[in-house]
Amino acid sequence: MPDWLSLCAIVFVFSVFIITSFLIYSGLLAQVVVLTGSPPVKKITIVYKFLQGPYKNCGQLFKESSSIGPKLPCIGVFYDDPRKVPGPECRCAVGSIVSEGEDKPSEDLLQKYKTSGFSVFSFPEVTHVVTASFPHRTCLSIIVGVTRVYPRLTQYIKERRLCAHPFIEVYRAGQIQYIAPLARQGDFYVPEVRPLPTQEDSLSESDVSGAESNSECSLGSGVALSDSRESSLNRSSVHSGSLRSSSDRQSRTRRSRSKEQSWDQHGRQEERERSHCERESNQKSQEDSSRDLWGVVGEEE
């Protein structure tokens, strides 16, 4: 019995040591530094498949893309925050980078991806992004990176009130590059994610000019939209206040006019009553004088 317990203890300690070592090697204690600056990738052309659903289901798309181009960097573009958006409604684009910079992608390679159902799209080069890196040593590095990097990224963006979206992951050279563009965010949205234009959108676009960055912020997380909302609320409150004040002035004016009219009518009515009373008194005085006159004449007779 003591030998069996000691053997179990040795196995347990050895298992804990192996798991801990594997987690550390996967990046559990790796330093996470979030920066704002130039992106680690330039203008790129990607092949991708669009997925709407829980992000845990995108692993199969990574494997499929890597099987066609095993030497190509993999890329994932994530458009929704799974903490705020239900899993079935989360959207992402997963695939590979087929060219970067001024290089042109191979037509044969593109044809292979298109045959497998992948689409082609290009991302522009931007000057400033929020970026962080994490070691990609094992398959567990992806999970550890999600739990360690994304909280730092979101905190960094909120503290500085930045408008950074969508979140892009690039896998190459043993590193996972996390990128969030600070400009031209709308150009990083694949056609499956972009909303269809409607008549209301066209009307709103005609009313607003020179607000490209704010409209792009509304496509994604909307981290830096609080100022614009507050300003719009302030403008609307001021406008509504001015409308209320003008309406109050108009109502007071109408009330004063109605009062003046009522006083005028009341005054005219009193004048008519006074004139009527004067006419009646005159008639009575005439009748009295005539009766007195007839009385005098009768006495003389």
From TrEMBL:
Protein source organism: Mugilogobius chulae (yellowstripe goby)
Region (Disordered): 197-301
SUPFAM superfamilies: Probable bacterial effector-binding domain
InterPro entries xrefs: Reg_factor_effector_dom_sf (IPR011256)
Regions of compositional bias (Basic and acidic residues) in chain numbering: 258-291
GO cellular component entries: autophagosome membrane; endoplasmic reticulum membrane; nucleus; replication fork
Tree of life domain: Eukaryota
Keyword Membrane on entry: yes
Residue stretches of biased makeup (Polar residues): 199-218
Keyword annotations: Membrane, Transmembrane, Transmembrane helix
Protein name, as recorded: Testis expressed 264, ER-phagy receptor
Keyword Transmembrane: yes
GO biological process, one term: protein-DNA covalent cross-linking repair
Membrane spanning residue stretches: 7-28
Comp. bias (Low complexity): 233-245
PANTHER family to which the protein is assigned, alphabetical: TESTIS-EXPRESSED PROTEIN 264
